[in-house]
Amino acid sequence: MGFWHTGYMEFHQPTGLDAEYRPTKTVYRCHHCDAQFDEIEALRGHRFEVHPYSRPVFFVRGVELGTTTFRVTRDAVAADFVVDRSTTAGINGKSVRVADVPNLLAKVKNDKVKIELANDGAHAVFEVVFRIAAVEDLEGVETAFLKLAKKGLLTIASVEGFIEDCKPFASADAYCDGICHYLYGVLAKERSPDSALPYEEYRTRFNRAADELLDYERSIARTIRALVAFHFNHFADVVLTAPAGRLRIGSSRFAALLGGKDWSSVPIPSVAKRNAMEDLLTDHETLRILRWTNSSLADLGGEASNISALAKRDIPEFDRLKLRMLLAEACAAAGDKDVARKAARTLIGNSKTAVWAERVIAGLADEKD
What we know:
Elements (H helix, E strand, L loop, with lengths): L1 H5 L21 E2 L6 E2 L2 H11 L6 E4 L2 E2 L5 E3 L8 E4 L3 E4 L2 E3 L4 H6 L3 E9 L4 E9 L3 H17 L4 H11 L6 H17 L11 H12 L6 H13 L3 H7 L4 H13 L17 H6 L2 H10 L3 H5 L2 H8 L5 H18 L2 H9 L8 H13 L3
Helix pairs in contact: 4-5, 5-6, 6-7, 7-8, 8-9, 9-10, 12-15, 14-15, 15-16, 16-17
């Protein structure tokens, strides 16, 4: 991870973890298609006009619930809960008015709640687990994380020490769990000899971390979720989630390239803004990818041999895709058309990268030798 390799914490230790954090605007996404909206009412209108059916529907913070248990880990208000197409309701076996469901759920702090909704033709059951973490417990977990980071060594023992330090902060145990899943995932991904987890396990750990941290509006949680999304090449999600810094810029560049734009469509800032928490949590390979993606095209051209060397290592295909894109752009900038063309052609059969690959190849054909 970043600080295990660079010692960045020695000269830039974050003190107020959320001092510079500003939550990004919420985007409400349809779970049945790719549509997304700025307002939940627009999502609901789309949901019932485009994907109608009679079953009662229950939304929590813009997410349409299904059969999977949903977790609520921060204080909720009545407006966070929306019931539609239901004429009767019950909470934990007790009949309640449909109109009262949002207000009743907003009062729950720590409980597992079974919500039953019905109309004339259908019945649906939803389960929500409320684990509202106390602010002091969240801050306690973050202080324990900084203690771990200050040691500058990521091992199974250091993660176990972090878990032990978090035990007094019981209401934030899911927050601790999410961070731990990510740390274990990094150990597996970097093939640490200290980890007993198989290499392939890193994907499961990354996904579990993102799921556990989904509802926490804290800088550590959002940064981990953004890093996981970046690893799996969900660049649009990173742009919406990550705070200002190299991760957001790098994701914006990849998203622009995949959309058929060129490297210069995302300006390079005169001074690359470093985000302390992002640096702390980023694994070594991703740090290199972000550094290259945040460079000018001229500088990238000088890194072609290093990019090629990393791409040839035994790394995840998710990272190899990013590296092949970087290699093609770097070689094109350096005038090495053959290598640039070859790198682009490896991705022309992928529906997500075809537009980019065709643009690169066409650009090389247009250039004079």
